[in-house]
Amino acid sequence: xxLLDYGSGNLHSAARAFANAGADLVVSADLAELxxxxxxxxxxxxxxxAGIFALRVQPDQLVGRVERLVAQLKDAEKQIAALNAxxxxxxxxxxxxxxxxxxxxxxIGKSHLVAVFEQQAGAIGFxxxxxxxxxxxxxxxxxxxxxxxxxxxxxxxxxxxDVLAVQAAAVTxxxxxxxxxxxxxxxxxxxxxxxxxxDNPTTAAFDPRQRQEALFALVQDILRTWSHAQPLLxxxxxxxxxxxxxxxxxxxxxxxxxxxAIMIVAVVRPAAETDTPVSY
Length: 280
What we know:
The protein is 50% helix and 12% strand. By secondary structure, it is α/β, with parallel strands linked by helices. A 4-stranded parallel sheet has the order 4-7-6-5, sandwiched between helices. Helix 4 (62-93) crosses helix 5 and helix 10 crosses helix 11 (244-256). The two termini are 34 Å apart.
């Protein structure tokens, strides 16, 4: 552990405290030496103005050196994030599904980590789809899943009846070609895709619980089958604001993706920052 000596601050008190705690401490103003340490401590000072003055008047431009050190630490964090993303994506690519929860307060850097995952995934052939929950849509069933599945199916956003009818026909053709056995259940996708897929006698006979269970199973089958042709990265932003049904579908997929080339990333804030308990 390194303790920065910048000519001010409660240096000796901090050094004694760490020594009493048994820490292996290096007190230095040398950047090269501090870089070799596992952690860096910058001691505080009650006389704030004097402390800032001490930083600014260092003959060796310590301020610039500290700024470079902080930048290097941030670069190291990015490299670690990239390595972790690469490792997790490699597992998914090998057919060992991955489920990752990124939890942290606003501004902590979750978006950067997600960007790392997405960039790494796209570079090695993953198809990436993102669904973002919003507080105002918490009562809208399947809101994040509608975004995610429509991206996978390459459906443009258009609410005109003619376009929706064309999309419904295209989805039916595409998924029937993937697996003809799905055809009888395809009308269930109306609930999540928002397309005019009319019920057949089988789906019309389902009660609400049967309908949901059958839809969950169909989405699981579609995504698992899809991942055999192309690995999938599914990102759910603001998952703490997911509606209950969407959360249920996410949990259902997470339980069965262990042997598929699927990676799920749920991005959440701590429960203290939201009105919804985080349960991922």
